[in-house]
Write a structure and sequence with these properties.
By secondary structure, the chain is an alpha+beta fold. The protein has one domain. Helices cover 43% and strands 13% of the residues. The chain has a four-stranded antiparallel sheet with strand order 3-2-1-4. A hairpin with a 7-residue loop joins strand 1 and strand 2. Helix 1 packs antiparallel against helix 2 and helix 2 packs across helix 4. The longest helix has 21 residues. The radius of gyration is 17 Å and the shape is globular.
């Protein structure tokens, strides 16, 4: 992709693919953040939802606030690497490139029903996955439990994999500390 091509939000180039995710952050902090998967593009950055758009998740503003900075940082590092304009989540709607959207959904499905205190563990575990692993997890989860009310099967597996599987901040440092304590 040429550096001069116009992208929206987090890397959406409607000339390459109209399939994208759309994150809607309401101005009312008591309302939930909604993430839709969309298969068409409306001219301009602000998108108009259609009946064919699929609501994938609604998540509290509190939980969204716990993950949005890490999502932003992860996606922007990769956008910069590809010499594309960086993005940010805004009140209203933010388009997200379809592969980034799949990764976002893996994290959100993993934390949707968890205790907020384990969200840092979920983020660490999510960051420990390669993008291709996240895409695969999305594909498997979406195929069987991708609808808004499907909170079983793969969705539960994501929660356990991300939230119930604590990892050390830096396992190498812990091992080093153990060896040097003698």
């Amino acid at each position: 992709m040429s550096a001069r091509e116009v992208t929206y939000g987090f890397g959406v180039n409607p000339k390459l693919s109209e399939n994208h995710f759309y994150v809607i952050i309401p101005s009312n902090k008591d309302e939930k953040v909604q993430i839709y998967e969309r298969f068409q593009w409306t001219d301009g950055e602000e998108q108009k939802l259609a009946k064919s758009d699929r609501l994938r998740i609604e998540i509290s503003r509190y939980k969204w606030g716990k993950v949005s900075a890490d999502l932003t940082a992860e996606f922007n590092v990769r956008l910069k690497k590809d010499k594309l304009k960086i993005g940010r989540f805004v009140i209203g709607g933010t388009p997200v490139e379809k592969l980034f959207g799949k990764e976002l959904m893996v994290l959100l499905w993993g934390i949707e029903d968890c205790d907020p205190s384990v969200i840092p563990t979920a983020i660490r575990n999510w960051k420990g996955l390669m993008p291709e692993e996240r895409w695969w997890l999305y594909t498997m989860t979406n195929a069987s439990t991708g609808h808004i009310k499907d909170k079983k099967g793969w969705r539960i597996a994501l929660r356990y994999a991300l939230c119930e599987n604590p990892i050390e901040e830096d396992p190498q440092l812990s091992l080093f500390d153990m060896l040097t304590e003698e």
